[in-house]
Structures are given as C-alpha cells and as structure tokens.
Write a structure and sequence with these properties.
Blueprint (H helix, E strand, L loop, with lengths): L2 H4 L3 E4 L4 E11 L6 E7 L2 H6 L4 H5 L4 E4 L3 E4 L3 E4 L3
Length: 83
Amino acid sequence: MLYSEMRKKEVVNMRDCRKLGRVVDIDLDECNGCVRRIKVSDKVHCFRCLPECCTWLCGEPDYVISYKEIKQIGPDIIVVDIC
C-alpha cells in the first residue's frame, strides 16, 4: 500500500467507534523498512490545503499509534485499538 492511499483512510478506534482523524505521517524502521507507528490528526482543513505539509502546518499529530495497535486496514478505514 502506498502512503498516498493510506492517508486517505479514516482511522477509527474499535473500543468506542470514535473517528480519530486521518493518517498524516508514518514512522518507518530504517533497518527493515517496516511501519513502526502512524501519526493521526483530525485537523481536516490542512488536508484540503497541502496534505504533504499537514504536520508542518498543524503542529504535532493528535495521536501516535504503534503498529501493534492497528487491527485492520480496510478499503476505507483503518481500525485501531487504543485506550
């Protein structure tokens, strides 16, 4: 999956079905190239302007979710399990 596809998906917490936002950045393991964390923000206005620069425009992401907390990646949403 491409990052450009991932950032279009809504991130939803399975514990309370709350929409957390969309993926604004990913953290990769340099050694093996695997995803360690995704960074999620609900600041939608930035996505309409410059999606590539959302973290720079909006500041820190609202959530940093480890790969272990990602339960499923579907065609439209990413389901996570966070407290």
